[in-house]
């Protein structure tokens, strides 16, 4: 569920829902949508009196619910996680996406027990230094299954921060005794890591990654010493996934460029959700920030 930037201009249902998405606790118990809208209206100072806020919330409720249903009803193109959900007993009851209802399946409970740590992990991720975040991105592609993954040196990295190779023979008919075709199916994962908190990633950052990968494919580097990536040898026809990871957010223009270019992008919340789903640094329903700091900084 993605609402992008807070809409500018006069207050309305869309702006209220966008603010609600940013403020609702992911484990929040079900509450009437009208009450949540009233809370947003008062906190934003759009009304100063409770009665006036309730009246405005009532007039916005139907449109706000339509916006929420529309966002939840269609899969997000990028897999951006939702932080809220509609309770199964009533369309007008809104809850956190990790709130466990009574009739949940075992798989649903497990999923929510992991996802509930999404903001804790995000906060821990943002505590990493820019250099540590690059190493963290290497750990992420290891979770995807990349082998021979590397973090480039901070100085003179020529626009590439991390890379690795995904060998598809380990994922396509991995039980074959004597692999044939799949032995040739390898994909490079090459990425750039942007440690931003208050700044949104825009299109120039993404274009920089695309250009850097193309230059690396042709061994065109500014350094007189040659390639700064001795382990990155991209053949002429090698497939490459270009990965753009950030601790912060991606602008609307940035998302549009990702969609039209084929670059794979993940903002901070997506990275956090991906690792939560893997159960990284979780034990018995708890997330350990100290274990995360060790995991993120390790190279294994």
Automatic annotation (TrEMBL):
Q: Cite the GO molecular-function annotations of the record.
A: DNA binding; endonuclease activity
Signal peptide limits:
none
Q: Where is the Restriction endonuclease type IV Mrr domain?
A: 128-215
Q: Which Pfam families did the record assign?
A: Mrr_cat
GO biological process entries: DNA restriction-modification system
What is the protein named? Answer: Restriction endonuclease type IV Mrr domain-containing protein
Q: What species is given as this protein's source?
A: Pseudomonas saudimassiliensis
């Amino acid at each position: 569920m993605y609402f992008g930037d807070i809409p500018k201009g006069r207050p309305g249902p869309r702006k209220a829902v966008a603010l609600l998405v940013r403020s609702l606790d992911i484990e929040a118990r079900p509450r009437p949508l009208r009450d949540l809208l009233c809370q947003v209206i008062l906190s934003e100072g759009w009304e100063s009196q409770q009665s006036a806020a309730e009246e405005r919330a009532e007039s916005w409720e139907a449109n706000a619910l339509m916006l929420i249903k529309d966002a939840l009803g269609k899969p997000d193109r990028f897999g951006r996680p939702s932080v809220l959900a509609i309770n199964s007993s009533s369309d007008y009851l809104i809850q956190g996406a990790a709130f466990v209802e009574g009739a949940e399946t075992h798989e649903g409970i497990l999923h929510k027990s992991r996802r509930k740590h999404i903001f804790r992990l995000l906060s821990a991720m943002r505590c990493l230094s820019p250099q540590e975040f690059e190493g963290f991105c290497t750990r992420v592609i290891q979770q995807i299954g990349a082998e021979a993954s590397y973090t480039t040196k901070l100085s003179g990295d020529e626009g590439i921060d991390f890379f690795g190779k995904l060998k598809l023979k380990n994922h396509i008919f991995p039980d074959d005794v004597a692999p044939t075709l799949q032995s040739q199916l390898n994909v490079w994962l090459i990425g750039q890591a942007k440690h931003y908190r208050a700044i949104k990633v825009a299109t120039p950052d993404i274009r920089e990654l695309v250009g850097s990968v193309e230059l690396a494919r042709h061994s065109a580097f500014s350094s007189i010493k040659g390639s700064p990536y001795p382990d990155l040898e991209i053949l002429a026809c090698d497939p490459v996934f270009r990965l753009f990871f950030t601790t912060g957010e991606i602008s609307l223009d940035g998302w549009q460029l990702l969609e039209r270019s084929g670059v794979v992008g993940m903002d901070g919340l997506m990275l956090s959700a991906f690792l939560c789903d893997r159960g990284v640094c979780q034990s018995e329903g708890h997330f350990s920030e100290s274990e995360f700091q060790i995991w993120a900084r390790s190279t294994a």
